Each structure stands twice: as C-alpha cells, then as structure tokens.
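The pair is quoted verbatim underneath.

:::
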Amino acid sequence: MANGSVRVRFCPSPTGNPHVGLVRTALFNWAYARHTGGTFVFRIEDTDAARDSEESYDQLLDSMRWLGFDWDEGPAAFDSASGAGGGPHAPYRQSQRMDIYKDVAQKLLDAGRAYHCYCSTPELDARRDAARAAGRPSGYDGHCRDLTAEQTEAYEAEGRTPIVRFRMPDETITFTDLVRGEITYLAENVPDYGIVRANGAPLYTLVNPVDDALMEITHVLRGEDLLSSTPRQIALYQALTELGIAKETPAFGHLPYVMGEGNKKLSKRDPESSLNLYRQRGFLPEGLLNYLSLLGWSLSADRDIFSIEEMVAAFDIADVNPNPARFDLKKCEAINADHIRLLDVKEFTERCAPWLKAPFAPWAPEDFDEAKWQAIAPHAQTRLKVLSEITDNVDFLFLAEPVFDEASWTKAMKEGSDALLRTAREKLDAADWTSAESLKEAVLAAGEEHGLKLGKAQAPVRVAVTGRTIGLPLFESLEILGRERTLARVDAALAKL
C-alpha cells in the first residue's frame, strides 16, 4: 500500500461514556493511518435520536483530544486554535446527512437492488418460528421480494407502511479479512435485510457503508462483533459501485474481542471499561494506550513498555492477533506506573497538579507548600501506579495533623511502642535534620536499644508522622516535613498511646 492511500475511519455513537474497547479500536485505526502516512477520519454516528446526546458528543471529542488522537477529517478541529477541521466530505455527523441517505436508498430502489417490504412483525416472527421448526435458516424469507402491483396495492390499502430491504445476491460471498484470513458466507445464511425503517429513518446497515463509500474509506478496522454484517456490506458496496456511488469495496479487518471477568466480552456496563474512570484515577494517556495496544498486538515478544511513537512506527494491521484479549487491570496499572517513572520530574509535578487541589486535596489551598512539594516529588514519582495516589502520599506534608488509618495504627502501635517512640524522639531531636541518612541512623539506634531491626523500629514513627504504615521513603519525608512538625507528631502519638 503506497503512502497516503490509506483512509481509515473511527465512527462512534455519542451514547454514554467512552469505553476502553472503543478506545482500542480508535487506537488501531489511528496508528495504522499514521504508520502508513494515510488519513484518519473521525465520524459521528448519531442517527439514534433516542440514545444520542450532545453531552456524549462533547465527551467523545474531549476524550479524543486527551488521548492525543489528532484527526485529519472530522466534525470539529483537533486543535481549535488552528481553525482546522471539517474536510472534503463534510458534514461528519450522520444526523446532518439524512438527505444523502434518502437519495441513495431511492437509487437502490430504482435500480432494483432494494425493494419495499410490507411484512408485519408478527408475520415475520411466525415465519421464522416455522423455519426453525423445519430446520431451515430463520432469516428473512424473501416474502416481498417480487410482489406484483396488485399485491402492493392490497398491502397499501390495508394501511401498511413498508420498510426498505436490500436484495442480497444469490451467491456465496468470500473475502479476505486483514486479521482473520479468508472467510466465506453462503447465500442462504445472509438474507435480505432492512436499510430504511417504515418511518423513513435510515438504518445503520445503510448509513455506515454509504458514508464509507462517499468518504472513500479504504480500510474498515472494527470489532469482531461486526464480522457477521460484513457480507451484507460487501454486497451493498457492489451495488453502490454499479450506481457510481462507491469507487471500490474497502478491505476489512476485525479486531479481537476484549474480555473482562469470567472470560466474558467487556461491556460498557463493566466498571473497568469506562474511560472516564481511568482519567479520574490519573492514568497517563500514554500508559493507557500502551496497555490497550497489547490487547491484540505487540511490539515484540519480550517488550511491553514503549512509546506511542514507537507503536506507530511498527504498527501493521496484519500483525494483529485474532484471538480474544483479556483485560488485566493490574497489568494496566503496572504499565502506567512505568510510564509515570519515565516522565522527567518537572512534567511529573505538572501532571500531578489536579490532584493537589480541590476537589481532590483535603487541605486548604493556603496550606499547600510548593517548596515541600518540589522536594518530595522525585520520591513520590517512583511509588505511584496512578497519579491520584499522590494525594494520600503527600497529605502528611500539608495537613495540620496526619489522617490516621486505624488498621495502620493497630498494626504499628503494639506493646512497647511508646517506649520506642520516646527513644526515637530523643535521638531524632539530636540528629542532623539536613540529612535523611542522619535521621535513619537515629531511628536505627532507637531500635537497637529496644532490640528491634530498622523495619520494626520505623513502623511506629511512620504511623505517628504520616498516619499510615505504607508510604514514601520515611527519612526523606521526615527531612522535608522538618524537626518541629515531626517531633510534635511523635508527641501527639505518645499522648494518644
């Protein structure tokens, strides 16, 4: 495929929150377009007025920008400051293209490639039940394929309003899937199907291929759940080509299912599927995309961590694995943690900013100390899986007193802890507070006096000062907190004991 000739599209519906399966589809399309030097078309399928919303539409655009998916053609600019956006095939929202679909449907009717179907739902159900009982395919049986003028008049006299059905060719359809290889569908398994509702509203089965045809999409990369609709679309493409509406039939590649718990397909209702959840928890876009790229593809057998630029340079749809991929939240978090550590400290501090102020931060804005934050940031960066964890990790610096986790208090403050804390306080008071190593030696010495190794000796000190048994490196934390506040907290813990 020559550079620049690839045209792919990402065409979500604005219903609800974006989910990670949708993001994986967008990622593979975007990466393939960028790898080939092709065109990435962002299109909105918003013909379902009952389910679509402007709020969801705005969320989609915001999510695409947050993920870094720039688009070459689409409903709005990727960079609003540039004034770019739109494109030669505008509009890119289906709700604004209704006249186009009406015109194409009429052309299909005029050419005999579609027909009016007057069958009622009860009639269709009864015939399907009879077909199943007889062991025959239970799809549409072609009842209205060749109605006479008299039959049509009779149906209309009854007040029936027809739908429009596409007339499938009586032939086997074979195509080569870019992910799965050659696939064949027998004619009896792909019956005629509806393309326009009785109220005149076009169906997905018409609008999606028509848009692909008019926007000259060359590669349709989409979820495996849409595989069964492909022979119908191929037949429609053939008709659209005959009518001069389409130039060619695109290549199809069906991406593997993303599985959730219990090896079930990850659905929009599963909590771990919501993109907003990952944003709120403080996943980096690059960390999340790195993990999602591994759901069906890999850079190499022995390398899981890579940049989006490295993915684009290597990505080919032919390398996608057709087998279902299981979503593993722990691995996703681990990969995100690696990307956090790859940031330079300045960028890390900037990315943490939302979680250091309201509504996430429990301290007052005036109690936030920028110098202390800059000092603790390098130690925090190596500990986080997601950015939202920064709030609990540094709250001891900015609150008047620590927030005690009761389980941590019970675990650390055992019999004899008061004596240990008194000794530690004495040693710390005499230590060099410009050196974390000196503070470590003070607690180590206190532990030795009580027959404890450093790990056991520092637990009561950590809980007294930070409120928790787990956190950032203790002695660097004490140094940044300072002698006065540290000793005051040890005193408060002793009083509590």
Observations:
- Confidence is low (pLDDT under 50) at residues 79-84.
- The two ends are 74 Å apart (CA to CA).
- Residues 101 and 207 are 6 Å apart (CA to CA).
